[in-house]
Amino acid sequence: MERLFSGMQPTQDAHIGNWLGAIRNWVALQDRYECLYCVVDLHALTAPYDPRVMRERVLNLAAAFLACGVDPAKSTVFVQSAVPEHTELTWLLACQTGLGALERMTQFKDKSDQNADNINAGLLFYPVLMAADILAYRAQVVPVGEDQVQHLELAREIVRKFNRAFGDTFPEPRPIVPEGSAKRILGLDGNAKMSKSKGNAIALVEEPATVRKLLASAYTDPERKRRTDPGRPEVCNVFTLHGFFTAPSRVEGIAGDCRSAALGCVDCKKELAENLLVALEPIRRRYLEVRADEEGLRAVLAAGAERARALARETLVLARRNMGLVEGGRRA
Ligand code: TYM
């Protein structure tokens, strides 16, 4: 079986973009690959945060993975900072990574613009840590949304450079990106990628009243100004979301009724809210259960970290040796 790695930042609670673009696939891939799923807390340190809430967020996100169907009996679920080999490998890889390539990363440029007063070195190193996450396990497969593909390409470049310099050490990881619009779910503004930092997201675990309220504020076709104007479903993000949460036969009906103005945006959004709530209800129920048993959750993460660490240690022995480092103090 090929090995698969993926991760998610505990910056805030997971949203439906994370679910449709990533976690839903993680669950489906568990039987086909040897999977490792990681809460990447070290990545989350690159943005300003309150240390008092970080611990909560890490546990919340791990609980969300399990609630969505990630099964610790099949997959290794753990927290990045519990496996220090990730940071050690980051350094080894950084010395094979061009500064120019890091500066050209779209996400680095975006985040630097967003945090002009805090462009920390961690933001620049972010993709190297991401490559280390994957390569610590010599993983071949990485399910992600489209926004992470550039980082994966850089990881592949680092592998090629490393292997050329030090001999065959790592496989080139390949991304698995969802088909169609799930690879890039837009936010409630109907414009930018749904993202925790942009405040345009619907959290995966949310009070039903909040989901209804958020969806009521969602942008639709900007040219549809009056209730009687015909709409254009093909440019409307609410319609795109119906595609994920509404029965296919009804989606066709919605498209027709939008074009003929038989259906207004307010009602269309209400219908989406109810369908979304039906889809999210089992996740929410399971999440509350898993999160209430913090001891059990911590035990899952501890077992996952132990398994992950054993694998990562093996890779680091190989990488250090191939790079010509002396196994100082260690017996070969
Ligand atoms: P993060 O935490 O921003 O997002 C986690 C996953 O969700 C996907 N995603 C989306 N997919 C579709 N539409 C959206 N609006 C959307 N927003 C987020 C992301 O593509 C991602 O798959 N750097 C990564 C985390 C990471 C990682 C790794 C991933 C760290 N190390 C190693 C894979 C392998 C990140 O910030 O994801």
Beta-strand content: 5-15%
Q: CATH H-level name of the largest domain... which superfamily? A: HUPs
Helix content: 40-55%
Low-confidence stretches: none
Cα-based radius of gyration, to the nearest Å: 22 Å
Question: How would you describe this protein?
Answer:
The chain has helices at 16-29, 41-44, 51-68, 85-94, 99-103, 106-114, 121-135, 149-166, 208-216, 237-245, 248-259, 265-292, 294-322; strands spanning 3-8, 34-39, 76-79, 141-143, 174-176. It is mostly helical and 332 residues long. The protein has 2 domains: 3-184 and 294-331, HUPs (Rossmann fold, 3-Layer(aba) Sandwich); 205-289, Tyrosyl-Transfer RNA Synthetase, CATH 1.10.240. The strands form 2 sheets. A 3-stranded parallel β-sheet has the order 1-2-3. Strands 4-5 form a two-stranded parallel sheet. Strand 4 (141-143), helix 8 and strand 5 form a beta-alpha-beta unit. Helix 3 crosses helix 12 (265-292), helix 4 runs parallel beside helix 13 and helix 9 (208-216) runs antiparallel to helix 12. The protein is globular, with a radius of gyration of 22 Å. Bound molecules: tryptophanyl-5'AMP. Residues 5-9, 17-18, 21-22, 40, 43, 130, 133-134, 142, 144-145, 147-148, 183-185, 193-195 line the site of tryptophanyl-5'AMP (TYM).
